[in-house]
């Protein structure tokens, strides 16, 4: 984290299907507070309390799962917004066996309509999942 004393992570996922009917957030490390699905904006937002102030000596580990339920339309993209810089970020995305993507790319950008940086192809592994682990993440998407 950029500074000591932070107690929670506000998690923003920008969804491309405004008709997503539901979301389920499961937290492995910490305590879930205030999950919201704002369908009109395509946002899944939740706060995760770390149960203790975080310090540079004790780096935070936050583990959670976001399940947006059945999708009515195929997804063209999924964006994760970082409101504060973080040291490392490990998204691990699993796909339904009958809904595998035809292609995937990872990238960074400053805003939803911003220019893509660090565009790279991604490949599914044997468990029908993909992950990336960028280090020293700046604010942005």
Break the fold down into its secondary structure elements and pairings.
Layout: E1 8-15, E2 24-27, E3 31-38, E4 43-49, E5 64-67, E6 78-81, E7 86-88, E8 92-94, E9 104-108, E10 117-122, E11 129-131, E12 135-137
Antiparallel strand pairs: 1-4, 1-6, 2-5, 3-4, 7-12, 8-11, 9-10
Describe the structure.
This protein starts with 7 loop residues before the first strand and ends with a strand. The protein contains no helices and 12 strands. 6% of the residues are buried. It has a 4-stranded antiparallel sheet, with no helix packed on it. A two-stranded antiparallel ribbon has the order 2-5. Strands 7-12 form a two-stranded antiparallel ribbon. The model has no long low-confidence stretch (mean pLDDT 80). The chain has one domain. The chain is mostly beta strands and 141 residues long. A hairpin with an 8-residue loop joins strand 9 (104-108) and strand 10. It has strands at residues 8-15, 24-27, 31-38, 43-49, 64-67, 78-81, 86-88, 92-94, 104-108, 117-122, 129-131, 135-137.
């Amino acid at each position: 984290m950029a500074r000591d004393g932070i107690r929670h992570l506000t998690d923003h996922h920008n969804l491309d299907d405004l008709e997503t009917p539901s979301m389920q957030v499961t937290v492995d490390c910490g305590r879930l507070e205030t999950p919201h699905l704002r369908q009109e904006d395509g946002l899944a937002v939740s706060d995760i309390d770390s149960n203790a102030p975080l310090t540079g000596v004790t780096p935070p580990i936050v583990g959670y799962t976001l399940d947006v339920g059945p999708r009515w339309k195929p997804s063209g993209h999924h964006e994760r917004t970082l409101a504060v810089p973080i040291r490392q970020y490990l998204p691990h995305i699993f796909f339904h066996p009958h809904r595998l993507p035809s292609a995937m790319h990872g990238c960074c950008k400053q805003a939803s309509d911003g220019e893509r940086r660090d565009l790279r192809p991604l490949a599914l592994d044997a468990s029908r999942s993909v992950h990336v682990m960028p280090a020293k993440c700046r604010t942005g998407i």
